[in-house]
C-alpha cells in the first residue's frame, strides 16, 4: 500500500531536508518553493482524501495487510506542538509570511520526532494538508 501510506523513508526524508534548505536561504525564491511543494507534497492531498472518505466508507480493507506496528503508527495522534503549528499556520500576516511557510517544516519535524516515526499517521496527513494549504495561501500573497 505505498500509495496509501506515507512512509518516512529515504525519499520522503530527502524532500523534508530539501524543504529545510529552502527555509535556510536568506533571500527566498517563493515561486521556486511553491513549485517544489507542489511536486513533492501535493500527492498527500489524495492520501488525505483517502483517509477522510474511503476509510470511512470501506473500513480501510486495503490496509489490513500492513503490520501491526504500521497500523499503530497510522493511529498516532498529533502532538500538542503540531496542533499549535496548525493554528499558527492560519495566522497569515504580510510580515509573518515566512513564519507561516516554516510551519510546514516545523509540523513535520515535530521537535525531532520525525526521526523516530516510520509512517505519517492519518491525523498527521490531515494536519499537514491544512498547513500546506495555508502555506500555499501565504506564497500567493
Written overview of the protein:
The chain is mainly α. The chain has one domain. It has helices at 10-24, 30-41, 43-58, 68-74, 80-89, 97-109, 122-140. Helix 1 packs antiparallel against helix 6 and helix 3 (43-58) packs antiparallel against helix 7. It is globular, with a radius of gyration of 15 Å.
In short:
The chain has about 140 residues and is mainly α. The chain is built from seven helices and no strands. The protein has one domain.
Largest sheet: none
The computed structural class is mainly alpha
Beta-strand residue fraction: under 5%
Radius of gyration based on Cα positions? 15 Å
| Average of per-residue pLDDT values | 85
Termini Cα gap: 37 Å
- Topology as a string of helices (H) and strands (E): HHHHHHH
Summed up, the domain count is: 1
Can you tell me the residue ranges where pLDDT is under 50 for at least 5 consecutive residues? none
Helicity range: 55-70%
Q: How would you describe the shape?
A: globular
Number of helices: 7
Number of strands: 0
Break the fold down into its secondary structure elements and pairings.
Blueprint: H1 10-24, H2 30-41, H3 43-58, H4 68-74, H5 80-89, H6 97-109, H7 122-140
Helix pairs in contact: 1-6, 3-7, 5-6, 5-7, 6-7
Amino acid at each position: 500500500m505505498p500509495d496509501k501510506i506515507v512512509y518516512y523513508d529515504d525519499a520522503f526524508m530527502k524532500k523534508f531536508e530539501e524543504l529545510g534548505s529552502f527555509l535556510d536561504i536568506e533571500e527566498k525564491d517563493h515561486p521556486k518553493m511553491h513549485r517544489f511543494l507542489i511536486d513533492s507534497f501535493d500527492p498527500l492531498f489524495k492520501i488525505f482524501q483517502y483517509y477522510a472518505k474511503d476509510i470511512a466508507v470501506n473500513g480501510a480493507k486495503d490496509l489490513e495487510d500492513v503490520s501491526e506496528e504500521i497500523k499503530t503508527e497510522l493511529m498516532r495522534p498529533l502532538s500538542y506542538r503540531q496542533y499549535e503549528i496548525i493554528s499558527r499556520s492560519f495566522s497569515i500576516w504580510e510580515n509573518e509570511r515566512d513564519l507561516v511557510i516554516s510551519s510546514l517544516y516545523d509540523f513535520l519535524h515535530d521537535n525531532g520526532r520525525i526521526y523516530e516515526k516510520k509512517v505519517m499517521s492519518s491525523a498527521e496527513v490531515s494536519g499537514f494538508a491544512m498547513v500546506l494549504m495555508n502555506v500555499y495561501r501565504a506564497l500567493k500573497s
